[in-house]
Design a protein that fits this description.
Oligomer: single chain
CATH class of one domain: Alpha Beta
Distance between the termini: 67 Å
Largest sheet: 4 strands, parallel
CATH architecture of one domain: 3-Layer(aba) Sandwich
């Protein structure tokens, strides 16, 4: 038996379908939306519609933009010879927060995952290979997650771009700053030792 009107139930269901949103959170959000004024509710709905209509992928790096080329690609101060390959746009934001990387990006929009029926053809790998093949790229940094799918994707891309002469690197993995060796898992410790640096 439903306790809410069908339109409210529909709103809750739509909100609950979003990643990381459970049923109770969806209910709280739905009640918050209902409490908005008509102007605020229309602005909220308009923001969703506008984003859906205007946001698309950058023709160069495949990151999200509302222009033909994203702000990173059009920035003349960025080093276009270094391309950091990430699985999704959220990773671009994470790297940019550090203010240490000054190259450009290539966004794959996923990783190879046979279990989820995601093949290389479903990703923006072809566009990356074409970009490297054009020349002018000296280093490709593979910055996919250090899990099974991320590693498989990195290896696949590495084999594809190797013939073009660009240096292929992988993000270093190791012990987080401020943590204790005592509580570090074996795989992380092993990677930290393998990727140790001169001091």
């Amino acid at each position: 038996m439903s306790y809410f009107p069908s339109s409210l139930e529909n709103l809750i269901d739509k909100l609950a379908s979003l990643p990381g949103i459970g049923q109770k959170t969806a209910q709280r959000l739905a009640f918050h939306i209902l409490a908005l004024s008509d102007i605020e509710a229309e602005a909220f709905a308009g923001a969703i519609t506008d984003a859906k209509r205007q946001v698309h992928t950058c023709r160069v790096c495949q990151n999200l933009t509302d222009a033909e080329v994203c702000t990173v690609c059009e920035n003349p101060r960025r080093d276009t010879t270094t391309v950091c390959v990430v699985s999704d746009p959220k990773a671009v934001l994470a790297i940019e927060r550090g203010h240490e990387y000054h190259g450009v990006y290539h966004v794959l929009h996923g990783v190879i995952s046979p279990m989820n029926h995601i093949s290389p053809d479903d990703l923006k790998i072809r566009e990356l290979v074409a970009r490297v093949a054009e020349g002018g790229v000296s280093e490709v940094i593979l910055a996919t997650n250090p899990d099974t799918e991320g590693e498989a994707t990195a290896r696949y891309i590495s084999r594809l771009i190797a013939p073009f002469g660009a240096k292929v690197t992988r993000l270093a993995y190791g012990i987080p700053v401020g943590s204790s060796l005592e509580f570090t898992d074996d795989a992380t410790l092993m990677r930290a030792i393998a990727g140790r640096l001169d001091y």
